[in-house]
Amino acid sequence: MMNIYNDYLKEIEERKIQGLHPKPIDGAELLSEIIAQIKDLENENRQDSLRFFIYHTVPGTTGAAAIKAKFLKEIITAKAVVEEITKTFAFELLSHMKGGRSIEVLLDLALGNDSIIAKQASEVLKTQVFLYDADTNRLEAAYKSGNEIAEEILESYAKAEFFTKLPQVIEEIKIVTFVAGEGDISTDLLSPGNQAHSRSDRELHGKCLISSEAQEKIQALAAEHPDKTVMLIAEKGTMGVGSSRMSGVNNVALWTGKKASPYVPFINIAPIVAGTNGISPIFLTTVDVTGGIGLDLKNWVKKLDKNGDAIRNENGDPFLEEVYSVATGTVLTINTRTKKLYKDNKELIDISKALTPQKMEFIKAGGSYAIVFGKKLQTFASKTLGIDTIPVFAPSKEVSIDGQGLTAVEKIFNKNAVGTTPGKILHAGSDVRVTVNIVGSQDTTGLMTSQELESMAATVISPIVDGAYQSGCHTASVWDNKSKANIPRLMKFMNDFGLITARDPKGVYHAMTDVIHKVLNDITIDEWAIIIGGDSHTRMSKGVAFGADSGTVALALATGEASMPIPESVKVTFKGEMKTYMDFRDVVHATQSQMLKQFGGENVFQGRIIEVHIGTLNADQAFTFTDWTAEMKAKASICISEDDTLIESLEIAKGRIQIMINKGMDNHKQVLQGLINRANHRIDEIRSGAKPALTPDANAKYYAEVVIDLDVIAEPMIADPDVNNSDVSKRYTHDTIRPLSFYGGVKKVDLGFVGSCMVHKGDLKILSQMLKNIDAQYGKVEFKAPLVVAPPTYNIVDELKAEGDWEVLQKYSGFEFDDNDPKSVARTGYENILYLERPGCNLCMGNQEKAAKGDTVMATSTRLFQGRVVEDTEGKKGESLLSSTPVVVLSTILGRTPTIEEYKAAVKGINLTQFAPSHKLLVK
């Protein structure tokens, strides 16, 4: 055992070199040795052991938490004596453990025979909210058997004293600004993808926030203004676009927030962030998780002429003028009573949207979880006592408009809502608690999700969740030492918790590193479903899916619920005819481009649901659109499908789920078989006419309606990071969509990437056809730039093998992945060959492999953020241009962007992903 402690000391010394404190303790064996040294009064390590026990032990359901709670119980019951830890202090330490093993111990003490100890334990229990069925069942049983302490605790819960007795939110919150960047700030700036392996080590991961220089400036501001909170700002942009929300918010909180508890290391809460154009919706939800504040500053506005129209520059972009300055070091005041932002006692803007009654509760409680669990606890206590629930929490906003129909997403929310006024139809703007059908956890945030589950003391998945999946796609490219250390541990935790896992902790079935979004798209078998996933691209083509932070994923897994306002929707329909030489990816890009043009540069998609009427494409192909809506800054998207197309999609899903079952991935509850059964039932409903495919009402109301003209899409469209735009705020947004001809056939391309969640089997078949055509035309296939191909799923590989296309790809490849011998080191250089990489995210994620610094990359992926796929060099900025599969392939053959004539010739006779607007879809 002593070796474990010595190893810990060795690790501490290694961390000191990195400027880090001791890593928090979560293992039972190490803490057991530490406790043994505490009990040994002569032990030379006793004082350090006391410090580790008190200040460095992870609470919740960890092995260490169980040992710590048990030892504190021994101290309270006088079975152990530790001079430095009195009984009162032991109770205080239990109170800061917040749930799990500590609740079990507190209930033991509160329901025990020692009346004095029982009273003390009950006072602590009254402050706790993270109780689960096993805990509440004990309380209920004790109450029914006449236990007075149990009754007293339940009465306190019924009054929600765990909330009402908390200190009120202070009226004036003083802040000092720090401009983190101009333009949209991606969460990659706050939590870079290439540092994903360290996210569960909060202090270490905190070192990657923005830059060391920025961290020094933040520290200097905090030292200069000790009574103020440093607020991070996206000047002229939106804060927190992209993925990795929880780790991004954790990093901001670590540098600018306040400690959640003096006895829990590196968990900070209550960060304050802001953007000229507000906060990305998912990032704002994550801020709520920590009890923080997100502000929409509106400090730059469009300059208007005398007619009230926007004045535009030569590029057609509106001129912006500054309303007030938020330059770094500006001192501002948030008034939580007036809900206004002030500077030098002068009102700047109304910030009531950031300080709604619900958000004020999150701030008071230290985060949204405490409110969610608190409401459930109050309801339980009231029901057990046989009394009405006392109104304590802010009432949910219920918007119901007579005579107005429902959009598709409003229908889904009404179907899945819980706790709303019976019989009341709710429209957009209503605050709703909904049941969650499908949940997805991905591997670079999964360790954080497991930590969140431990901290909220959850041990098993909620029985009301239809299915949940833990992916392995973000660490599929390189099976390195970091992956070997982290991923098996994650898979075991999630498998034990009740999820279907990409890797089998027992090693029975083959690792399935399929892209999480593709798997979730398959296991969603009801278009009325609500899906929560730990990635911004959780955008299914069946149901409505919300990308979420790792904490919201944990909450959905633990409770089977999520809370959010019903979002407004924007309706997207199509007219005209798609040209045969175009690929559907071009329609996706054109949608964004035409929308911006139709609304004078305003992104009407931002923060809203995109309801896309695209019913003639099956779920695989339609996913290309719904997936991209994350880059359109939409909150989510929903696909309106025809009956026949939906049945086709469900049959595809059934086949894929059956493959998972055949591999041995189902669990003892037969979750996967249950999904197939539900899919069969849904197909029967559609075929019989009992319940046709979901459509909106004819009199539904939308924020906006966008009609995309297919006739005007005459050439391939490319999303360009526009890295040299003189206006920094215009760089690295997905709003710069350019036609192929813009590049004149001369822009050098250094590397091509076909992969990520944006491609389906059809894209790989297009690649195969193009290679055969080029070989026939030129007598050989020669790449002037490397082409990296990463199929999204193993199913696609198997289907391509069965149809003969994989053999073609093998013929022209210079590298093919080997699952029996996966790469253990990231590739640092590329030859001008075709690489057939392991299914997974690969270059799109940028956490394991990247293009060479300064490269211009043409990719099918979704990310064009700075440093994601490719980093800069001193003399050249890396560029990640996003386009269709045929454009990527041809660019690597030529080593440059093709001309439109070269493109048309290359795709002649190839079956591209085609789309025709539906003539059957009529609103009902």
From TrEMBL:
InterPro entries, sorted: Acnase/IPM_dHydase_lsu_aba_1/3, Acoase/IPM_deHydtase_lsu_aba, Aconitase/3IPM_dehydase_swvl, Aconitase/IPM_isomerase, Aconitase_4Fe-4S_dom, Aconitase_B_HEAT-like_dom, Aconitase_B_HEAT-like_dom_sf, Aconitase_B_swivel
Q: Name one GO biological process term.
A: tricarboxylic acid cycle
Q: Which Pfam families match?
A: Aconitase, Aconitase_2_N, Aconitase_B_N
- List residues of the Aconitase/3-isopropylmalate dehydratase large subunit alpha/beta/alpha domain: 410-895
Q: Name one GO molecular function term.
A: 4 iron, 4 sulfur cluster binding
Residues in Aconitase B HEAT-like domain copies: 7-163
Alphabetical keyword list:
Iron, Iron-sulfur, Metal-binding
Listed under GO cellular component are:
cytosol
Q: Under what name is this protein listed? A: Aconitase
